[in-house]
Amino acid sequence: MGSDTQVNILIVDDKPENLLALDAILSDLDATLVRASSGEDALRCLLQQEFAVILLDVCMPGLDGFKTADLIKSRPQSRNTPIIFLTAVDIGEVSVAQGYLAGAVDYMIKPLVPAILRTKVRVFVDLYRQTAQIRQLNADLARRTAQLETAIGALEADIAARQRVAAALRVSEEEVRALNADLEHRVLERTSELQAANAALQKEIAARKRVEAVLRELSILDELTGIPNRRELNRLLRGEFNRSRRYARPLSLIMLDIDHFKDVNDTYGHPAGDAVLRWMATTLGGELRATDRLARYGGEEFAILLPETPARTAFHVAEGLRHRIAAAPFTLEAEPAPLTISITISLGVAGLTAGALAEDDLVQAADLALYEAKRRGRNRTVAFAPALLAARVAS
Ligand SMILES: [Mg+2]
Question: Which residues are annotated as catalytic?
Answer without folding.
Answer: 300
